[in-house]
Each structure stands twice: as structure tokens, then as C-alpha cells.
Structure to design on (463 residues):
């Protein structure tokens, strides 16, 4: 496999897309996937469980300094920013929200772009703000692959559209195309 | 983002000209803080480096901006509910309870603790100490005054912790928040009542270099979302220091997504959200 990690950012309208992607990943998928999803401020628990129901791979809300392992899905915990450090560990942060969001997709994407460079796939899904646009640009600058969910298919297309305006993305994919891309890598 | 080499360069300069040592901070998280400072000041790294070299005042400001100072009243209400019904009640028969908030920032959790202690009838016998590296946030903490508008959650959190019992849903009381703080919507102000403000001892302290600056051990140490900015090695040193300064069976309370890894964890027994000194 030529990639070392996948990072996915999503907001309004992305929950069903994520659920479908996670349900269709091959059981032997052997790199980590990072999920940075906006959620309602008061919905701090239960999200991990809801995503786990259909996922083929285990979903974990990481603790600070937890090791990153292949074949696991890591969900940014509520009310923390999530960074991927060199040496395969997470660090968390409670600094103020960025783009009104904590976790912020941009901040997670920035750290992943630095740590995984051209071995990273970044995906932006449906969402109602611009978080993730600069992050996807950074992934592209570091040599990684930039994908957005097709705005035509999105419940809310602001987020992928903003990402497309910020950088020249490699692929504009429907959910099914994202799944088949992930199966191929 | 700044590279590891650029970050190392910055850290080495600061180490040379001051007593501040950021070598053991989480690298990407630290890089983000410096990126933020650069963009807030519309500067590139070389300019930042030369300005901290030439201006001690600017260096102090940068150090304050590096540290993260977010906190809330009763942040993570379930943690505070567990503190109330599973931890603080264990100290009821003691004549004195010593509590240290390490890295207290602007003090919201110190006041959360005082409110809880008062509701449990433990206020008078508690000694509450609170420390932070940053004197600006300590000054806010000492005043006990906060913005109201962005903190409306505080009232919900207050009700969850003070007026509800998750272990017995029939046990509902109706303590008004005005018993502890006043809200002035016109002035956008939430102000703690004087009897709370006058109680704790706030002190400047550097967790890394100073250790315990009070001449006592503690029944309870709260250090929430502070050590996440340090790497594993430095976290371990601080966990050792806390261990030396807890009474036997004393409790350490970390943030909701913090944990203790490696051999130091064997010195504590994990009880749900809490670590108890063995």
C-alpha cells in the first residue's frame, strides 16, 4: 500500500456518508483512518457507538498520547482538537475553537499533512462551513491526495465547494466512488 | 505548518535567553501555537526569533500566548458528578481536606470545586490551592469575574452537577445559582460571590521546574487538560511529582481524554475517571 493514512473531515450531512464508507471498508484495511467530524456541542457521547454499529473496523476516540495503529478508525473526541504527531502518537488540545469548531478539521489536517506528507489521503465531505478547506490545501502542498465529496451529492455543499476553491483537488467523488478508491489503495 | 527543525531552532533560542524550556512539549501541538502567534502578529519565524531576543517583554507575551487557557465552570459535568458522589464523599470524616488545582488557568474549575464543597458541607474544612504559570490568567481567577454571553453553558452545567443526581433520578434539589454567583446581562458579567472569591490561595507556579510549592500533601489534585501539551516523558515526570505529593489513597483527576501510560501508571490504581495513589 502506498499510503500511510486517510483523514476525513465532515460536518452537516456527513453522518450517513461516513456510516456508509465505514460499512464498506474491507476488513483487512491496514492503515489508520482519522475522522474529524463536527457535532452538536451537547452531543458528547454516543457518537462513537452510533458509528460503530455498521463499521467493519474498530472505532476509537483516542486519548492523549495514545499510539496510532493500522486498521483502526480514530474519531476526534468531542471538545478537543486532535493532532497526529511524528512517532505515531496523538496529542490533544483544548485551545479555542477554530472556524467555530473543536475539533477543527483544518488543525487535524495540518498536523496530518506534516506527519504523513505524500503518503496521506485527505477527504472533505458534506458540511455547512469552510473548515477543512485550508487543511486540504496543506495536504495537497505536502504531496498528498485531495478528494472532495461531489457537491451535487452533498446535503450541504459549502464545505467541499470551499475546499475546491482553496486548492485544485485531485478527485471529486460520489460516496460510492470514495469507497471504491479506498478499496483500491 | 512549521517544521520540526524550525520548532527546535525556536525552542533553543528561548532556552538560551530565558529559563523557559519547551523541549518536552508535544511537537505538532506546539507548532500550532507558534503558527497562531506568527499569524496573529503577522510575522515570519525569523522576525519572531529576533524580536524575542531583543525584547524580554515580548518574550513574556509569547510565552503567555503559547500556553492554552481554556476552561469552563463544571467542564464535563459527568466528571463533577462522579467527584461529588464517588470521591469527595470519602473525605467527609476527615478534619481537613487539601485540594490542589494544578494549571488552574482563569479559575472556573476552582470555583466549581468550592461550590460543590459548600453544597456537601465541606467548605470550611477544605484548603484549596490553585496554581498557574501565567500571571494574567491568575489575576482573572483571583477576581472571579467572567463574561456571561459566551458562557451560558455554565448555568446548564451548574444544574446538572448541583441539582441532579445521576445515581438517583428522584434526588432532585433546586439550588439557585445566585447562591454562588450573580449574572448581569447588561454588563455581560458573571461574578462569583465574595465568600468563594476569598477562599482559595492562588499562586504562580511552574509545574515543570517548581514542583509542589505548598508545604503540605494533598487529598485531591486536579490537573485537567494541562499535561496534554507535554510529551510522554515530561508527563511521566509530572505524574511522579503528583504521586510524591498525594496522601495515601489521594486522588488525581485528569481531563476527559487524558490517561497515564507506561510504568508510572502502576503507582496509581485507576478508578473510572480517576487515579488513586497506591
Amino acid at each position: 500500500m502506498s499510503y500511510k493514512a486517510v483523514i476525513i473531515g465532515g460536518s452537516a450531512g456527513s453522518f450517513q456518508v461516513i456510516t456508509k464508507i465505514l460499512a464498506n471498508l474491507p476488513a483487512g484495511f491496514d492503515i489508520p483512518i482519522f475522522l474529524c467530524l463536527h457535532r452538536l456541542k451537547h452531543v458528547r457521547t454516543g457518537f462513537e457507538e452510533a458509528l460503530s454499529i455498521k463499521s467493519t473496523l474498530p472505532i476509537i476516540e483516542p486519548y492523549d498520547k495514545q499510539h496510532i495503529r493500522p486498521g483502526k478508525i480514530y474519531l476526534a473526541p468531542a471538545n478537543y482538537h486532535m493532532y497526529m504527531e511524528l512517532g505515531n502518537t496523538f496529542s490533544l488540545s483544548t485551545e479555542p475553537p477554530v472556524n467555530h469548531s473543536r475539533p477543527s478539521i483544518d488543525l487535524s489536517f495540518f498536523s496530518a499533512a506534516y506527519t504523513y506528507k505524500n503518503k496521506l489521503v485527505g477527504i472533505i465531505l458534506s458540511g455547512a462551513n469552510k473548515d477543512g478547506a485550508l487543511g486540504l490545501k496543506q495536504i495537497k502542498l505536502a504531496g498528498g491526495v485531495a478528494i472532495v465529496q461531489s457537491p451535487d451529492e452533498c446535503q450541504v455543499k459549502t464545505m467541499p465547494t470551499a475546499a475546491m476553491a482553496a486548492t485544485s483537488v485531485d478527485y471529486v467523488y460520489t460516496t460510492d466512488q470514495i469507497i471504491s478508491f479506498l478499496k483500491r489503495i | 505548518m512549521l517544521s520540526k527543525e524550525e520548532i527546535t531552532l525556536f525552542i533553543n533560542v528561548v532556552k538560551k535567553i530565558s529559563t523557559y524550556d519547551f523541549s518536552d512539549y508535544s511537537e505538532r501541538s506546539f507548532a500550532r501555537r507558534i503558527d497562531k502567534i506568527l499569524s496573529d502578529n503577522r510575522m515570519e519565524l525569523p522576525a519572531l526569533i529576533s524580536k524575542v531576543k531583543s525584547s524580554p517583554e515580548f518574550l513574556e507575551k509569547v510565552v503567555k500566548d503559547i500556553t492554552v487557557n481554556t476552561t469552563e465552570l463544571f467542564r464535563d459535568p459527568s466528571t463533577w458528578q462522579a467527584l461529588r458522589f464517588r470521591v469527595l464523599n470519602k473525605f467527609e470524616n476527615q478534619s481537613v481536606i487539601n485540594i490542589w488545582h494544578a494549571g488552574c488557568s482563569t479559575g472556573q474549575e476552582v470555583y466549581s470545586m468550592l461550590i460543590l464543597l459548600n453544597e456537601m458541607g465541606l467548605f470550611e474544612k477544605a484548603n484549596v490551592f490553585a496554581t498557574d504559570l501565567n500571571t494574567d490568567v491568575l489575576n482573572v481567577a483571583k477576581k472571579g469575574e467572567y463574561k456571561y454571553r459566551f458562557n451560558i453553558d455554565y448555568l446548564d452545567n451548574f444544574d446538572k452537577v448541583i441539582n441532579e443526581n445521576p445515581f438517583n433520578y428522584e434526588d432532585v434539589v433546586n439550588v439557585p445559582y445566585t447562591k454562588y454567583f450573580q449574572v448581569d446581562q447588561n454588563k455581560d458579567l458573571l461574578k462569583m460571590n465574595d465568600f468563594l472569591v476569598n477562599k482559595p490561595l492562588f499562586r504562580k507556579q511552574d509545574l515543570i521546574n517548581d514542583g509542589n510549592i505548598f508545604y503540605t500533601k494533598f487529598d485531591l489534585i486536579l490537573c485537567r487538560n494541562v499535561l496534554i501539551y507535554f510529551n510522554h516523558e515530561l508527563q511521566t515526570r509530572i505524574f511522579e511529582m503528583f504521586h510524591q505529593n498525594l496522601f495515601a489513597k489521594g486522588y488525581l483527576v485528569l481531563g476527559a481524554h487524558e490517561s497515564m501510560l507506561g510504568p508510572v501508571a502502576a503507582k496509581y490504581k485507576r478508578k473510572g475517571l480517576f487515579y488513586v495513589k497506591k
User: Anything to note?
Assistant: Residues 148 and 186 of chain B are 10 Å apart (CA to CA).
